[in-house]
Amino acid sequence: xxxxxxxxxxxxxxxxxxxxxxxxxxxxxxxxxxxxxxxxxxxxxxxxxxxxxxxxxxxxxxxxxxxxxxxxxxxxxxxxxxxxxxxxxxxxxxxxxxxxxxxxxxxxxxxxxxxxxxxxxxxxxxxxxxxxxxxxxxxxxxxxxxxxxxxxxxxxxxxxxxxxxxxxxxxxxxxxxxxxxxxxxxxxxxxxxxxxxxxxxxxxxxxxxxxxxxxxxxxxxxxxxxxxxxxxxxxxxxxxxxxxxxx
Length: 247
Fold this sequence. Notes:
The chain is an alpha+beta fold. The protein has two domains: about 5-190 and about 240-245, Aminopeptidase; about 195-235, no CATH class. Helix content is about 30%, strand content about 30%. The chain has seven helices and nine strands. The protein has helices at about 15-25, 35-50, 85-95, 120-135, 155-160, 175-180, 200-205, and strands at about 5-10, 55-60, 65-75, 105-110, 140-145, 185-200, 215, 225-230, 235-245. Strands 1, 2, 3, 4, 5, 6, 7, 8 and 9 form a nine-stranded mixed beta sheet that branches. Strand 2 (about 55-60) and strand 3 form a beta hairpin. Helix 2 (about 35-50) crosses helix 3 (about 85-95). It starts with a strand and ends with a strand. About 35% of the residues are buried. The model has no long low-confidence stretch (mean pLDDT about 95). It comes from Terricaulis silvestris.
């Protein structure tokens, strides 16, 4: 990994611009997640406010970033995390600035497809922990998005987390990576990200009409979207899994 250097958005306008491009490339297919209330109101503001916590992994051979890790400082009880996850981290970091910070809340690791399977995402997990040490914080909390859960949208997160592979390890590859990096599962974050938008929004996103109320799978979504035609809205409540890392 010596070929890669860790920098931050605070280092230069060029890195900030490149980091935004990396995130867009990595998450574009899941753009509906940008419409949680917390994301819409606070996310970009927090990235700017805490630019020194927005890590950028640069390939020193090309000079261009290959991975981005976003996190923010906040106050939390490592053993008493709420059912809300990603949205809660963003709202807490944005609205509770007066309290002393004791942790980093990890929000995303973005690696474009061309650079995946090189260990870069795992490197970013390690860098979150190193940043917490440098800032004299107690550790890192992360609402981890299971990478294979979208293939099992009708399975509850509680059941999914209990699955193991033939070696007795966590079934999900991304959960397994966090565990291998020293993360401790706290519990599922059953309401980590909530998107409630008009039915027309979901029809535009999925490219299909919804002619009756019900639960519908959506490409990339971890659980179905609940369409309520009487209210004219579709509600998506994404579950993640809380991990904690001691610094």
